[in-house]
Amino acid sequence: MVLGDPSQAVIEDAQTKKAYLVTAGQRFLDGVMVEAIRTDRVILDLQGERIELVR
C-alpha cells in the first residue's frame, strides 16, 4: 500500500495474475469498489459484501 493523497494500493488478481493500482472510491474488475486503503489492509465492497485484504 502507498499512503499519500490519495492513498493507493496494488491488488493482484490471483487467477489472471493481473495487477491493479487502485485508489479509494475507485471501481475495478466487475463492480468491486475500493472503500478504503489503510496501512495494513484494503477494504473492498463486492456487491454489498465487505472484503478486507490484509497485507
**What is the helix/strand order?**
EEEEEE
For the termini, the CA-CA separation is: 8 Å
Structural class: mainly beta
Biggest beta-sheet profile: 4 strands, antiparallel
Q: Number of helical segments?
A: 0
Total number of domains: 1
Please compute the radius of gyration using only Cα atoms.
10 Å
Anisotropy-based shape: globular
Q: Uncertain regions: pLDDT < 50 for 5+ in a row?
A: none
In terms of DSSP E residues, the strand content is over 45%
Question: What is the helical fraction, as a range of percent?
Answer: under 10%
Count of beta strands: 6
User: Which whole number gives the mean pLDDT?
Assistant: 90
> Based on the structure, what is the oligomeric state of the protein chains?
single chain
For the biggest β-sheet, the strand order reads 3-4-5-6
